[in-house]
Write a structure and sequence with these properties.
Ubiquitin-like (UB roll), mainly beta, two-stranded antiparallel ribbon, binds zinc ion
């Protein structure tokens, strides 16, 4: 896949991580959403090996692109009316 920012060929790989959440706010303590925020990519703590989030990294501008559609989240829900 080509980087949408600089057009370089991106490197396919995995974000290897523990618990994580992408949210429209900063979480200081808990990684659980509070029902008012928009969030995506909610990942629980893995029991054995880390979570492996398929993604692409640009070797030129270093941006990382993640398709969060297969993960727990509420972003975009109810906004299509
Ligand atoms: Zn790039």
């Amino acid at each position: 896949m080509k980087c949408p920012f600089c057009d370089a060929e991106m490197v396919h790989g995995y974000l290897n991580c523990g618990a994580a959440i992408w949210s429209d706010r900063k979480h200081k303590i808990s990684l659980l959403p509070d029902g008012k925020e928009q969030y995506a990519l909610q990942l629980g703590t893995p029991m054995l090996s880390p979570n492996h989030v398929e993604s692409d990294c640009c070797p030129n501008c270093k941006r990382i692109i993640i398709d969060s559609s297969g993960y727990e989240g509420n972003i975009g829900v109810g906004q299509s009316e």
